[in-house]
């Protein structure tokens, strides 16, 4: 029997000790009319050999296309040691470190993680992870409403330049607590949050302003001005940042002098593979004075009864297993293994290594944008500075172009039409440090060919763009 | 020693980063960081040794018996990990087009179908990232259902006092008031008390069955009828699904919505505190409200179903489609178990729990519900030992660590004093259970003869008992130079 070690003799002896004749007798408290019929839609069991063949075939089916999509998930190099160590059984198959003395490995690692994240974000404290960047922002919004006693409104200012999936997720999670998300438009020329439109909210009662860096278009926001605006108007500043970008960009703790109040975001770029969107992890840091309103696990250093240093779950009075209906969040299981990987990843790269990754992504993306915009019918949409993504407008329907590229095994970008119809035919492209010069060539060559074929087919007389 | 304390300026794992650091052309200097962040500066071998050594300070399923009640710490098959990490699967971008996703989507669709079957629900969404997010999705759907019917006065969720802390915390996140009801001495919900709180304000009830007391709720059919008659819906907390997998289906018990903890029942790794996966299944009336995206199949191709196809959805709960890598591991496990293996999980988990309960009872330990059949877990109460010997459940737990056993869940559920909630799971052999009984008997002997040994345990682990009060009072949450 797969994964069940009992021999027939074991079963016989165990039933004898219990004092029943058959295993089925152990279910005698369950009303007979509730017993399940045989399952209809579960196939027969497979051996490891059989299931390996099945999964290999399915993985092959999806191929290994060259990926120029970012849009919230980024294809970075992950050192081999990261997942070899993270999948050691002692990390992989342990649970939440409730028994601190038997979990010092995980606990010390999480303390190191908190140290690394606070260094990266230049913030005071970090928790030990939330589910992902989007749901983590929802928790940050709930936290801001709890913390900001000056505000009574339960309104949050959210830029339209924030990842649309984040806006939708936050809405789904906070709407039942009567929290209202107020959209702030972006400037059509730069792609940044429109400061004039934001100023219209000056003097109104809002609990917080969300500040993405970079924003969904890859464009860098004027984070000092945004943070200063929030603080001048009694709002908390919630930073949503790419952690790799923070190796080279000014971190939330330094924005506008006094810094953002809460910094959160998607941890995936720190050692988690793309893996179809998960598991990733959400990180969250905040100012020291807000730590008791922070959701999720927090690890503290302490001493044992001989005075030796050790690590333990702390401030548990915030949490659901103690506080129940008065907890800061319902979160219990979080993303421990991903944080394990991220910690090893950050240790292996170090500050200099992470900065090299960030700078290489930036250089690659600038290179890609330069090459693609030499093609007729392809132009930059925003002129604001970017980190490692940019928006291109195409003189042909984006879905058709992306489909043609995909047929050539190039994933050319993310189609913005669904979330931003006002941008017309526009795509978001990204080139991480993993994309080589020949990958960029391949993309540019294929796109040029596809665009040329379309303009010849459709506009034989006037192939000019616009 | 912390990794930071091994750091030396200028030391790096040179092979791991790009060879150059290109200039950041085009980024205004006021947006740039002054110096790189203060991360540790170590070699590759430094890091490998350090984290390998740290791993050795953990208890885990792969190294110890881990009977942590309500957490289902069963063996995590290695094939699930290595196959979920195949390059084509871990390299797939979440926004990859359907043309490059049919293999992955087929796995997700199959998993949805299998989970529907084992829970008896009409439709499944795999989106929630963990049990608590599954609970959130479930209660949010209950709310959306009442709102869609214009039934506005329902503002209460009923929760038994034995419930997991996530239940009341979730109800509050969804904007509900929590109404707690008591449990009877035999472990069943107090149906008379339930009748007393049901009314036009009832949105629903959250139940775990078998309950956290390790017993099957025998009056479930009557409870379902009463709640439905009052216009409320029933939420099933699937934390204990391992006890009834393939034997009883929550849909048949009358539940309207269920979440499953795939990191428990479907044996995906607990990872030192996640990632989990908490898919939700619903009865017919909640289908329109399921969280998106889900995977559909038109007879030829697999496709994502989003808010466009499901306009009444409660929405998205994460940026993409949940913890796909965890779902893949659960899928692989489910395929290896197969139809016949599902019920076997419940059978052998129950056999192990009842055997262990009987042996501990025979050895002089008090079961909290001695007249009830154990399900996949059971409770030992050390109230007598605490009173007579001044040795607590926590002391027993810590001493078990010395003897090479992870402790059971302690002090939960809250209504049983000095309790150990013990869940052996189906993947442990009889010999392992016998060893645990021996350890418990030995500790009982020590508690009588040399209680100090028990009260000051552990003695053999990397640290002795830790000062939790100091940790919370003198907060030290990060390394500082």
Description:
The complex is a heterodimer of chains A (466) and B (481). By secondary structure, chain A is an alpha/beta fold. Chain A has three domains: 8-52, no CATH class; 66-71 and 351-458, Aspartate Aminotransferase, domain 1 (Alpha-Beta Complex); 80-345, Aspartate Aminotransferase, domain 2 (3-Layer(aba) Sandwich). Helix content of chain A is 36%, strand content 14%. Chain A has helices spanning 8-18, 48-62, 80-86, 89-92, 104-121, 133-147, 164-174, 195-199, 223-232, 320-323, 336-372, 398-407, 437-458, and strands spanning 66-67, 125-126, 155-159, 180-184, 208-213, 236-241, 262-266, 282-286, 299-303, 309-313, 378-380, 389-394, 410-411, 414-415, 426-430. In chain A, the strands form four sheets. In chain A, strands 2-8-7-6-5-3-4 form a seven-stranded mixed β-sheet, sandwiched between helices. In chain A, strands 11-12-15-14 form a four-stranded antiparallel β-sheet. A two-stranded parallel ribbon of chain A has the order 1-13. The N and C termini of chain A lie far apart (67 Å). The model of chain A has no long low-confidence stretch (mean pLDDT 96). With 481 residues, chain B is an alpha/beta fold. Chain B folds into three domains: 3-55, no CATH class; 79-336, 3-Layer(aba) Sandwich (Aspartate Aminotransferase, domain 2); 344-455, Aspartate Aminotransferase, domain 1, CATH 3.90.1150.10. Chain B has helices at residues 44-55, 78-84, 87-90, 102-119, 131-148, 166-173, 191-197, 220-229, 250-253, 324-362, 383-389, 393-402, 430-449, 451-455, 468-473, and strands spanning 123-125, 156-160, 177-181, 202-207, 233-238, 257-260, 280-282, 294-297, 302-305, 366-367, 378-381, 409-410, 419-422. A seven-stranded mixed β-sheet of chain B has the order 1-7-6-5-4-2-3, with helices on both faces. In chain B, helix 4 (102-119) packs parallel to helix 10 (324-362), helix 5 (131-148) packs across helix 6 (166-173) and helix 10 crosses helix 13. The longest helix of chain B is centred in the last third of the chain and has 39 residues, at 324-362.
């Amino acid at each position: 029997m797969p994964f069940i070690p009992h021999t027939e003799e074991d079963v016989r002896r165990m039933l004898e000790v219990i004092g029943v004749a058959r295993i089925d007798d152990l279910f005698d408290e369950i009303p007979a009319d509730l017993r399940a019929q045989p399952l209809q839609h579960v196939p027969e069991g497979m051996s490891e050999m059989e299931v390996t063949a099945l999964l290999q075939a399915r993985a092959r089916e999806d191929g290994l296309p060259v990926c120029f999509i970012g849009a919230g998930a980024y294809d970075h190099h992950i050192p081999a040691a990261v997942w070899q160590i993270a999948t050691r059984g002692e990390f992989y198959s342990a649970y939440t470190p409730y028994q601190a003395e038997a979990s010092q490995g995980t606990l010390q690692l999480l303390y190191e993680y908190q140290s690394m994240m606070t260094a990266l974000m230049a913030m005071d404290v970090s928790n030990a992870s939330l589910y992902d960047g989007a749901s983590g922002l929802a928790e940050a919004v709930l936290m801001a409403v709890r913390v900001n006693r000056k505000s009574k409104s339960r309104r949050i200012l959210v830029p339209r330049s924030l990842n649309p999936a984040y806006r939708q997720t936050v809405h789904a999670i906070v709407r039942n607590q009567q929290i209202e998300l107020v959209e702030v438009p972006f400037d059509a020329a730069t792609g940044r949050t429109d400061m004039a439109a934001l100023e219209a909210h000056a003097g109104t009662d809002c609990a917080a302003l969300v500040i993405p860096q970079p924003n969904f278009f890859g464009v860098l926001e004027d984070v000092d001005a945004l943070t200063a605006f929030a603080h001048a108007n009694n709002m908390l500043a919630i930073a949503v940042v790419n952690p790799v970008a923070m190796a080279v960009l000014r971190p939330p703790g330094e924005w506008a002098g006094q810094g953002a109040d809460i910094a959160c975001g998607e941890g995936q770029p720190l050692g988690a593979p793309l893996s179809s969107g998960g598991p990733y992890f959400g990180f969250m840091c905040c100012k020291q004075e807000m730590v008791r309103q922070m959701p999720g696990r927090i690890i503290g250093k302490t001493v044992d009864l001989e005075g030796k240093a050790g690590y333990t779950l702390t401030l548990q009075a915030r949490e659901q297993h103690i506080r129940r209906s008065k907890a800061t969040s319902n979160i219990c299981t979080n993303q421990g293994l991903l944080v394990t990987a991220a910690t090893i990843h950050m240790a292996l790269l170090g500050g200099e290594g992470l900065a090299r990754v960030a700078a290489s992504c930036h250089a690659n993306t600038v290179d890609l944008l330069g090459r693609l915009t030499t093609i007729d019918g392809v132009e930059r949409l925003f002129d604001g500075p970017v980190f490692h993504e940019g928006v291109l407008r195409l003189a042909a329907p984006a879905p058709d172009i992306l489909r043609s590229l995909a047929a050539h095994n190039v994933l050319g970008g993310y189609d913005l039409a669904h979330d931003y119809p006002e941008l017309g035919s526009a795509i978001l492209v990204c080139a991480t440090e993993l994309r080589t010069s020949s990958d960029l060539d391949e993309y540019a060559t294929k796109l040029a060919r596809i665009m040329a074929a379309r303009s010849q087919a459709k506009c034989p007389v006037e192939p000019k763009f616009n | 020693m912390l990794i930071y304390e091994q750091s030396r300026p200028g030391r790096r794992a040179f092979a791991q980063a790009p060879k150059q650091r290109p200039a950041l052309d085009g980024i205004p200097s006021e947006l740039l960081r002054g110096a790189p962040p203060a991360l540790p500066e170590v070699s590759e071998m430094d890091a490998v040794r350090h984290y390998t050594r740290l791993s050795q300070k953990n208890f885990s399923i792969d190294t110890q018996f881990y009977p942590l009640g309500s957490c289902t710490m069963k063996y995590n098959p290695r094939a699930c990990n290595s196959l979920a990490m195949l390059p084509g699967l871990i390299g797939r971008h979440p926004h990859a087009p359907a043309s490059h996703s049919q293999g992955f989507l087929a796995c997700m669709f199959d998993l949805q179908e299998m989970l529907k079957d084992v829970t008896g629900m009409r439709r499944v969404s795999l989106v929630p990232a963990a049990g608590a997010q599954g609970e959130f999705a479930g209660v949010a759907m209950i709310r959306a259902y009442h709102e869609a019917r214009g039934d506005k006065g329902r503002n209460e969720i009923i929760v038994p006092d034995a419930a997991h802390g996530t239940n009341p915390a979730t109800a509050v996140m969804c904007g509900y008031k929590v109404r707690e009801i008591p449990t009877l001495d035999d472990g069943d919900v107090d149906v008379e008390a339930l009748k007393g709180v049901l009314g036009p304000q009832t949105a629903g009830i959250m139940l775990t069955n078998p309950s956290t007391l390790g017993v099957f709720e025998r009056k479930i059919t009557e409870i379902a009828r009463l709640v439905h008659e009052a216009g409320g819906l029933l939420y099933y907390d699937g934390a204990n699904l391992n006890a009834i997998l393939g034997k009883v289906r929550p849909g048949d018990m009358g539940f309207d919505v269920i979440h499953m903890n795939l990191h428990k029942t479907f044996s995906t790794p607990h990872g030192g505190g996640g990632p989990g996966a908490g898919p939700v299944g619903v009865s017919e009336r909640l289908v329109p409200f399921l969280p998106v995206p889900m995977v559909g199949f038109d007879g030829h191709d697999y496709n994502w179903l989003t808010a466009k196809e499901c306009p009444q959805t409660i929405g998205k709960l994460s940026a993409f489609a949940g913890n796909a890598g965890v779902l893949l591991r659960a899928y692989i496990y489910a395929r290896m178990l197969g139809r016949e293996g599902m019920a076997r999980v419940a059978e052998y988990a129950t056999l192990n729990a009842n055997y262990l309960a009987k042996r501990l009872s025979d050895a002089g330990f008090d079961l909290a519900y001695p007249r009830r059949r154990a399900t996949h877990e059971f409770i030992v109460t050390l109230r007598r030992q605490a009173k007579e010997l001044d040795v607590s459940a926590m002391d027993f737990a810590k001493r078990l660590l010395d003897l090479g056993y992870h402790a059971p869940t302690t002090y939960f559920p809250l209504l049983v004093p000095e309790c150990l909630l013990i869940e052996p799971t189906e993947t442990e052999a009889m010999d392992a259970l016998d060893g645990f009984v021996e350890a418990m008997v030995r500790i009982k002997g020590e508690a009588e003869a040399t209680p100090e040994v028990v009260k000051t345990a552990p003695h053999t682990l990397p640290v002795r008992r830790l000062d939790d009060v100091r940790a919370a009072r003198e907060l030290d949450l990060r390394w500082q130079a």
